[in-house]
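Q: A reviewer asked whether we had any structural model of the full assembly, not just the individual parts. We don't, so I'm hoping you can provide one. Inputs are below.
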Amino acid sequence: MNVLVYLLPAALGLGLLGLFAFLWALKSGQYNDVEGAALRVLCDDDIEP
Amino acid sequence: MSEAIDLSLYAKPEADGTLGMDVAVEGIACGACITRIENAVKRLPGVIEARVNFTNRRLHVAWSDALTEPSRILQTLQANGYRGHPFVPLRAEQEEAAEARRLTRCLAVAGFATMNVMLLSVSVWSGNVTDITPETRDFFHWASALIALPAAAYAGRPFFGSAWQALRARTLNMNVPISLGVILALAMSVVETANHAKDAYYDSALMLLFFLLAGRAIDHAMRRKTRASAGNLAALRAETAHRFTGDELVSVPVAALKCGDRVLVKAGERVPADGEVLSGTSEIDDSLITGETARRKIASGAVVYAGSLNFSGVLTLRITAGGGASLLDEIEKLLDKAASTKSRTLRLADRAANIYAPMVHATAALTLLGWWLAGASLHDAVVTAIAVLIITCPCALALAIPVVQVVASGALFKRGIILNAGDAIERLAQIDTVVFDKTGTLTLPEPRVVNAADADPELLHMAARLALSSRHPLALALAREAVSAIPFDGAVEEPGQGVRVIIGGEEARLGSFEFCALSRWVPAFAGTNGNDGGVSHIYFAHADQSAVFAIAQKLRPDAVHIVQALRDLGLDLHILSGDRAEAVRPVAEALGIPQWLGGLKPAEKIALIETLKGQGRRVLMVGDGLNDAPALAAAYASLSPISAADLTQTQADAVFLGERLMPVYEAVQITRRARSLMTQNLWAAAVYNVIAVPVAIAGLVTPLIAALAMSGSSVLVTLNALRANQKGRSL
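A: Here is a predicted structure for the entire assembly that you could use as a starting point for your response.
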């Protein structure tokens, strides 16, 4: 069971990484316009034909 | 108009030295609009940033000094087919946005911690029935404590703060049992872990926080959405005024007008603020203020009120902004009184909390006492009592009402009804009497041609197209009948008389009887000046043909139908109007409403509503005029059409869009359904407790059972709430 000593912190660290990524996204305003984001992905005006 | 627009009220300096402005944009419908608007605005020299927020239909622009005329931003929008209305975000809206972000952060932390602790807990539970060693179990419990304690301290703040305030004020709210449950569960778990016990409740405490925070976040998201749409409506309605700066005319937002400013009001425009007429004569339509449809003649020295429609002449006003405006003063006084005497209705959730919180505490205390007296050790008695606290914590209760509210307000929004007040759904659902105002509520806000069916279609179309070239209110009403929206080239407007143009070599004239020189063909109608029971006439002559169009207030297209449908719902209907009795009678008769009164002053409207309230009725007031605002505040629930006066709209619980009266019926139907779902959910939560609490008192609750019970009941009420979105019985 000694494997837990480093597996558990590793799992927690990965989880925390996800949490901080979400908090950063929230802070940088990426959730301010969720409907718009869904539509913007379909815009291809910036691609040269 | 080549008139300059002054936007200095809206442009705010930003952190990087640029100027920024928020614009509510009408007409954003799809993804293509986003790029079209952003690209067009960014092409202006000096614009640094343009970003459309599709969710709340707003545009944020930032520009540097290189953009000399900020009004070009609005012109660019207009040129692309969108109407932009700049606005200053309300403080309340910004505070709510900050609170929503705080709740989302707490929710994220609680979610992260719950998932990880649950991972450890499941290992312990499966280990307990197989071969986990006590050392591994302790390690897992301490790891859980390491995650749970800081996470709960962070994510629980919204509850702890509110509970502490309630306790200091010596009251109880829903947050008191929640905070107590979470803190005691965590404290007990730490003690149990130190004693190498088999079970700990870290996961229960965190899951509790997660579900409760989810309920709050949902509730907040709904309020933010209604607030944003209400903010956009306010921006749409913020009109501009023509102010004299020296001798120059500058277009300024009405909010920027100051006492003593001189403004010009053209024919067909609304008076921007209370004021005194300096020069000019005209007829004024006060229907938005008093409900009176007959027009009032005014000359210099007369007092006019914001919202009145200038009918014929050009007026120059000096703004007095409320100072001595007796009508507005009186209305505001009534409003204050009505709002303060309004019995605060206790929300369903608060009522549930008032019963619930003492019961939970009493049950837990009795459990402790009972087990201890029955001879159990103090440790076992405390553990059982805390299990009771955890299992009774109102997860499902906290979700039961917000989820229904969100789904119902979404359903209302889809049908063009925008909520102003958070508890409007509950109050709208309980009404048993509806009081309508007449002008602008049962009738359309703008007058229409009433004899269009009798007129020669060719002449009607020609006249309507010619009417497009005039700003006169009667011409505007006629222009609504136009098939094509292209005005004739070379049409000339003679102010106060009419419009003329050459069509096919012959002159066509639209306007007053004299202007059309019609005495040869048709006799002038009695009361040509438009005070004949609210019917006005406009004349049209072309070559040797002529026509007369009668223009009057018209009932909303589905009014008869909806009034009948409301009566079928068992509601008692009344009309209380500020207009003359002769004007109200035909409307009341057409709709078959026997209980009507006309010529009422605002104070009399309130008195009548109070009388109805005194009979134990719950009154829904539907009105749009400034004179209705106090009555809206006094009524149990209130609705306003979007065309209503500003002050009136802010008093209404909800605002509805469009020409039809249908939203009134739908509002009642949807909110009634929502309320029954809320009650169902509360009962579901109660039944859950009836089953779970005896198990907890018996001391049989393990952390596994607690986890299953909490998530199970929460999912159940959420699924039930989604039924609010189902199509109601359609008409």
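A: Points you may want to mention in the reply: The mean pLDDT of chain B is 82. DSSP finds 23 helices and 28 strands in chain B.
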